[in-house]
Amino acid sequence: MKANEKLSTDIARVAAYKLLAECYYPPGEATREHVRQLSRSTRELCSPAAEAADRMEAALQSDESFDELAIDHARLFVGPFALLAPPYGSVYLEGERRLMGDSTLAVGECYYEVGLELAAGFNGTPDHIAVELEFMHFLVVKELDALAGGNLDRAQNFRQKQQAFLERHLAAWVPDFSRSVEEQAQTIFYKSLAETTRTFIESDLDRCLAKGPAWIDGRASVLSHLQDTKGSRS
Questions:
Q1: pTM of the entire structure?
Q2: 209 CB contacts (<8 Å, ≥6 apart)?
Q3: Among 175, 34, 69, which Cα is nearest to 183's?
Q4: Residue 74: how many other CB atoms lie within 10 Å
Q5: Distance of alpha carbon 134 from the chain centroid
Q6: Which residues have a Cβ under 8 Å from the Cβ of 19 and sit 6 or more positions away?
Q7: Dihedral Cα 115, 119, 125, 131, nearest 10 deg
Q8: Within 13 Å and on the Cβ side, how many CA atoms surround 73?
Q9: Which end of the chain is more exposed for a tag (fewer CB within 10 A), N or C?
Q10: Residue of 24, 47, 14 lying closest to 189 (CA atoms)
């Protein structure tokens, strides 16, 4: 794979992780645009994920209203009654559907190592699906930042952090979580979101295992892409 192709792939990864995370927050009008961009971002990364994202977009254009999605979101992920698909890694990694276990603390340590902490007002735990997806988004951005500056050692370090986090956390529990969502969801949207997440995570772990960061010619081009990506999130 040429350097410019790797750059395009990692820019798509930046977007895909951020957009998947957004889809696990309560649905609203912005969800339409998130899903549209998710379909586009995953198309060059993982065909099964893109096809599932297309089904998410189709569901939003059909009979599934935001009220229906909000009800399903609460049933699956929020409560107030027993959660049908708890969005927390420790539930799937530690048995007995346990919250705030050793794996939760390990995730928090991953964030601390790179200078991150949960935003004030966030009511979840460090191993919430959206938070872990956003952390992967951060790690890919930092890898691209390092490549843009020509710091290959730093880029390699962030690539290794991505692989380790996927192996020990996201990829270790997302398959079981996704199956719970697919079994329990009442809407095509959330069934398809689960499939999008699972297939993308599986393919991205394979991608991280297969290659390391490449030297990128044209650092200004890398920086430009990163600035565009960050600007779209502000």
A1: 0.86
A2: 163
A3: 175
A4: 15
A5: 6
A6: 34, 35, 37, 38, 41
A7: -70
A8: 17
A9: C
A10: 24
- Per-residue pLDDT of 12-37, as tens digits, reads 999 999 999 999 999 999 999 999 99
| Angle between helix 47-61 and 30-43 (nearest 10) | 160
CB 147 within 8 A of CB 213: yes
Q: What is the DSSP string of 29-65?
A: THHHHHHHHHHHHHHTT-HHHHHHHHHHHHHHHTT--
pLDDT tens, residue by residue, 116-162 = 877 766 666 899 999 999 999 999 999 999 988 889 999 999 999 99
In whole angstroms, give the CA distance from residue 3 to residue 217.
Answer: 7
Tokens 């649905």, residue? Answer: 27
Token pair listed for 232: 């779209």
Strand, coil or helix: 176:
helix
CA distances from residue 184 to 64, 82, 129, 172, 231 in whole angstroms, order as listed: 16, 12, 17, 20, 36
